[in-house]
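Entry 14. Structure prediction run on the chain below.
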Amino acid sequence: MFDKINHMKKIILFIVTLVVLNSCNSQEKDYLVTLKTKFGDIKLVLYDQTPLHKENFIKLAKNGQFDSTTFHRVIPNFMIQGGDVNAKPGHENEIDYLIPPEFVDTLIHHRGALAAARQGDQINPEKKSNGSQFYIVQGNVFSEEELTANLQKVHSYLNRLAEVPGYENIVQKLDSIYQTQGNEVLNKEMIKLIPVMENRFGTSFTNPISEERLEVYTTLGGAPHLDEGYTVFGRVVEGMDVVDKIASVKTATMSRPVENVYMTVEVEEISKEEWNEKYGGKTY
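Output returned:
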């Protein structure tokens, strides 16, 4: 029990440090963003370390361009995605630009993180962000083994493992697990293979991870596999219960909610002092 409390204290201290860094500039004012939905309000603060994304998001919100957009992609225990201005009738191609990535080592995909959506690496190798679409991480809590396992490397060695007596059908077995039980169970099975592979092939199948990230993702949770791939530019300070409600709605194909979840977005200008007093010590 005390260990868990200490873990949470470390997490709060880690995220508060980010907030202090964000607030240390000459501006006397900042913004509080409120996403209003039928399930309630989600309040967000945006980071000064990602100025291009912050300025763009505030501009769109102030202009009312987010209003009547939806959360069009919802995946439980992962994230809720919305803000597609171009999907509104009569607004096609209204947002015709991308935003250069603004990766910051200390801004990670913890539960409640606000980040920019983008197209995949094959057609977007520079990892530029979509001009309006964003997502909020609901996330999952991970074990240390899940966080440090280099599953991509494990996967690349599977055909070699299949040549080892007793593992001839490993590829087919893992494919069957994926098809019937999903990616989460598949990952756990692949993690079990790491000691065998390290002993057999004499190479490491683990990735280094900082103590801070390990602490966050094993307690608060999040989506660590997105780090350094998508720009995190803010976080939820109130309303994660609303995020959880949206994440639980019934979905159809392409993870689209069966019933539309619309939003309106409001921006409130507040002083830095009030910003720090209200939200400086809150994880969400």
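The chain has a mean pLDDT of 91.
Filed with the rest of this week's runs.
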